[in-house]
Design a protein that fits this description.
Layout: E1 2-7, H1 13-27, E2 31-35, H2 39-46, H3 52-61, E3 63-66, H4 80-87, E4 92-98, E5 111-117, E6 127-129, E7 137-139, H5 145-161, E8 166-171, H6 179-192, E9 198-203, H7 204-213, E10 220-223, H8 225-238, E11 246-250, E12 255-259, H9 276-288, H10 292-308, H11 324-335
Parallel strand pairs: 1-2, 1-3, 3-12, 5-10, 8-9, 8-10
Antiparallel strand pairs: 4-5, 4-11, 6-7, 11-12
Helix pairs in contact: 1-9, 1-11, 5-6, 7-8, 9-10, 10-11
The structure holds 1,4-dihydronicotinamide adenine dinucleotide and magnesium ion.
1,4-dihydronicotinamide adenine dinucleotide binds at residues 12, 68-71, 81, 242-243, 258, 261-267, 273-274, 277, 315.
Length: 336
């Protein structure tokens, strides 16, 4: 029995999270879900986007499956996602992007894993207007040796344990000579400790172009927070979009699994959201919990449903499609 904090989230969150819970239940892994609230629902119920009971539950269970949370642009509360990552020191943002048969995209056989530093730099929330007229603003991005070292080590460790061949270090050390330079120096020091894994470094703008041109030349990618945020969405675009991109936020004492996409208010409440990303995130979570067989079963079942391309959501097949619930049923049918 695993105790897991379940955060349904905003927008399409509750419906895709329900899909994930049903799929996990169908694997037979027994889970004691502790449902907690955050985001807009948190504000409604507790006047707080990140209520104390939710934090308390994650502190206790150390693991959470989380739906997307809405964050207002440029005003209001700070991003709850950023706050959660900081609160639990979830310094690894692990975002795989893999091609699936049946999913139309520009490339097949893409199999990338992005390791994004999840706490430091421009997401640390140190921001202010420089003048009273609000004509200038400043965001401070601090990069540390400690933060750089542990994210790069996580990427190389992952490569080693998962039989990956190459780690690419992405940076902008030519312009940001101090912060980018520190990250690159530390990353190169770490790389030396893994002689069995090939490594290279590349400037982020070139990386964006290279990824679009030929993603098959890359394997594991490690980078700083902002670049990792952007490049991981780019990678998900290479394999058919955000509907298929799972993510994990991992620290030394807790982990939160989620989809890369947001709360998609434009399609909420219509039973049309693609549940694949959160289901893939659930499989990552089961792996993390040591439920390797169940994770494998989920990935296999989803692969079949995607390949058949019949009982899938509208984003995956604009002519013949089903709803979120029906696609979930189909995945569950293939689990048996
Ligand atoms: P979004 O990811 O919610 O939506 C982008 C586009 O992709 C939309 O057209 C949406 O309909 C589509 N889409 C997303 N997920 C989909 C799915 N599962 N199936 C089918 N189509 C899907 O990004 P957006 O619109 O920029 O952000 C909306 C809200 O989500 C914002 O408040 C943002 O702050 C929040 N957000 C939360 C995240 C999290 O909780 N981890 C991550 C990203 C955004
Ligand atoms: Mg993002």
């Amino acid at each position: 029995m695993h105790n897991i904090t379940l955060i349904p989230g905003d927008g399409i969150g509750p419906s895709i999270v329900e899909s994930a819970v049903r799929v996990i239940a169908a694997t037979g892994v027994s889970i004691n879900w502790d449902t907690q609230f955050a985001g807009l629902v948190g504000i409604e119920k507790f006047k707080d986007p990140l209520p104390e009971p939710t934090l308390e539950s994650i502190r206790k269970n150390k693991i959470s499956l989380k739906g997307p949370l809405t964050t207002q642009l440029g005003k209001g509360f700070r991003s709850i996602n950023v706050a959660l990552r900081k609160e639990f020191d979830l310094y690894i943002n692990l975002r795989p992007a893999k091609s699936y048969k049946g999913v139309s995209s520009r490339y097949s056989n893409v199999d990338l894993v992005v390791f994004r530093e999840n706490i430091e730099e421009f997401y640390s929330g140190i921001e202010h207007y420089v003048d009273q007229q609000k004509n200038a603003a400043e965001t401070i991005g601090i990069i540390t040796r400690f933060g750089s070292q542990r994210i790069v080590e996580a990427a190389f460790d992952f490569a080693k344990k998962n039989n990956r061949k190459k780690v690419t270090i992405v940076h902008k050390a030519n312009i940001m000579k101090f912060s980018g330079g520190l990250f690159l120096d530390v990353a190169k020091e770490v790389a030396v400790k893994y002689p069995e894994i090939e490594s290279n470094d590349i400037i982020v703008d070139n990386m964006a172009m290279q990824l679009v041109l030929n993603p098959l030349q890359f394997d594991v990618i490690v980078t700083t927070n902002l670049f990792g945020d952007i490049l991981s969405d780019l990678c998900s675009g290479l394999v058919g979009g955000l509907g298929l991109a799972p993510g994990a936020n991992i620290g030394t004492s807790a982990a939160i699994f989620e989809a890369v996409h947001g709360s998609a208010p434009d399609i909420a409440g219509k039973n049309i959201a693609n549940p694949s990303a959160i289901i893939l995130a659930s499989a990552m979570m089961l792996n993390y919990l040591g439920e390797v067989q169940a994770a494998l079963k989920i990935n296999k079942a989803l692969e079949i449903v995607l390949a058949e391309n019949k009982k899938v959501t509208r984003d995956l097949n604009p002519t013949t499609f089903v709803g979120t619930t029906e696609m979930t049923d189909e995945i569950i049918n293939h689990l048996k």
